[in-house]
Each structure stands twice: as structure tokens, then as C-alpha cells.
């Protein structure tokens, strides 16, 4: 009986020691000193809530850096609403200098910079188109010298146009210039006309043999 009491006393003593250690360990635990955070924070799209995370000090924080990147809205496509071609004169002599200006404009009439267009020339036939582009101000400017035209040709037509791309439709414009050779326009030979019929016209002729 005495031996049982000794064992019980030892068990109670050990339990008391363990309880003291547990209380000391609990008292040594320090809660992190966390700053207050907003009730909610939103990603850059202002629609998605930032995810919650725990920082290195054990504090809850809004982890907006881990928001998925939202691609920016694409810039609206700028379409050409009009293209214009202008020469400094309407009539030139062979060998004259010329200046030409081509502008591409949007719906508000503003020139569009760096816009691709095409140009081609017609004298007695259409020549191959050339690809050009407007400059930083929205215009293409060029100059040169008037060359002789093929025999019988006294004018040149210049056509400029843009091609339809995406939602943009193509636009087109033309200009015609007259070219004078040796001081006067080279005459175009008239088309031949049928001879006029005399007052009495034969409408039929026949030949007959007696046999």
C-alpha cells in the first residue's frame, strides 16, 4: 500500500512539472505585430479581388503582385477615309518640273502618318503600281521632270489608292494632267469617217444570165 502511494505521488509530481513547462511555453509565444490592412484590394483590372497571403512575419496581407496580368486594350484601328492627289499645275510642257502631294485622311479629316498607299500611271496603258507611304505629317511629296509621252498621247492619269485591310475599306483618287510637246499639244489623228451617200443610193445590185 505504501509503495502504491509513492508511485502515485511521483506521477502527480511529474504531471505538475509538465504542466508548468507547457504554461511557460504558452507564455513565451509572441503574437506578430501586424499592421491593419484594407478590407479589400483589387487587381489592376478593378474587377478581380487581390488574393490573400501570409508574409514573412506571419501577417495577413493582400498579394496584388500575384494578380494575373490583364493585356491592355488594343488601340483602335485607324482607317483611311479619303486619299487626295494634287499636282502644282494642270498643264505641263515636256521638260517642266512638277510637284505632287498625296495625303491620306481619317474620318475627321486629319492626315494619317505612316499610311501605306499605291500609285499607278496611265498614258496609253496602265503601268505597274508602286507602293509608297505617307510621312510623319501624313503626306507624301515628290517632284521630278515631265518626260515625253508616247506619240499621240497628250495627257496622263495618276491614280492613288489604299487597299482594304481588316475593318478598313480601300479609298481611291485620280488626277489628270495635260502634257504639251514642243509648245503645242500633239494633235491626235481623227478617226476615219465613212463617205457620205449621194442623193440616190444603190441598195441592191444583181446580175442575171439568160441561160
What is shown here, in short?
Helix content is 13%, strand content 27%. The protein has 211 residues and is of the alpha+beta class. The chain has a 5-stranded mixed beta sheet with strand order 4-10-9-6-7, with no helix packed on it. The chain has a 3-stranded antiparallel beta sheet with strand order 3-5-8, with no helix packed on it.
Keywords:
211 residues; 10 strands; alpha+beta; Immunoglobulin-like; 13% helix; 5-stranded mixed β-sheet; single chain; 3-stranded antiparallel β-sheet
Per DSSP E runs of 2 or more residues, the count of β-strands stands at 10
Spatial ordering of strands, largest sheet: 4-10-9-6-7
Count of discrete alpha- or pi-helical segments spanning 4 or more residues: 1
The SSE order reads HEEEEEEEEEE
CATH topology of the domain at 82-180: Immunoglobulin-like
Task: Describe, in plain words, how this protein is organized in 3D.
The chain has 211 residues and is of the alpha+beta class. The chain has a domain at 82-180: Sandwich (Immunoglobulin-like). It has 1 helix and 10 strands; from the N terminus they run αββββββββββ. It has one helix spanning 2-28, and strands at residues 52-54, 60-62, 82-87, 91-93, 97-105, 116-122, 130-133, 139-145, 155-161, 172-180. Strands 4-10-9-6-7 form a 5-stranded mixed β-sheet, with no helix packed on it.
List the SSEs and their pairings.
Elements: H1 2-28, E1 52-54, E2 60-62, E3 82-87, E4 91-93, E5 97-105, E6 116-122, E7 130-133, E8 139-145, E9 155-161, E10 172-180
